[in-house]
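Input sequence (259 aa), recorded before submission:
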Amino acid sequence: MYVSQSHVATGEASQADEEPLRRWLRATAQLDYKTPKLRTTMLSLTQLIAGDRDKAIVLHDFVKKLRFGVNPDDMSLKASDVLKQGFGDCFTKGMLFVALLRSAGIPARLQFVSLPVHFLHGIIDSHDATIMHAMAQVHLDGQWITTDSYVPDLTMQLAAIDRLSAENRVLGYGIHRRGAIYWLGRKDASAQSHASDERSMPTIDWGIADDPMSFYADPSHSELRRSFAERLKWRIAAPIVNKRTEALRAEYLARNHAA
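Predicted structure, token format:
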């Protein structure tokens, strides 16, 4: 059952659309989009493109091309760090996407949800029922459009689809087999869930925020913050996740190269 907890963020989710959209255009400690490298990257990608939707699509595709990978210190990263490292997960790639969008003058933010953990089968060994997940929301043509299709890089996603097909599964290796590969900026799109599969859909909507740091800093989200033990566990798990996703890509590339 889907439960909305958007009110938890001190009413931000309900008030946000009543505030000027410039609320979702500001720079923050993590969304440091005024740094030269990030600004230059945005301009090089969008300077010949007219229209916010087409700009948003190009920025989405740029972030999607970055390798999926986990940094155990994700909460300390800035968008410029993610750009420099060239890889990320739902939090860090989402943060970079939002920063690039805001740099281009397109309002954007992150939505935080609890997602059933089944989509991580094969890359994370977890006994938890759900995991916190971040999705970008982009304001286009007067509406907020939600997407996370930039999280898995294309090679990883195609490799995961192949593996899931072979195993006769729909969820695993970081994706839903029927999840979105591309995003056209007109409707919601998710790589990790699919509307036809209720068990893949978010169970709790925790609300919206500029970035992960501001979300977890909210006093009403104190119970969601990682404990020391959880941070230690994540530090150990991150290299395992990266090793498994690299192996998945390598297997796919070797098989297709041989073909």
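Checked by second reader. The chain has a mean pLDDT of 90.
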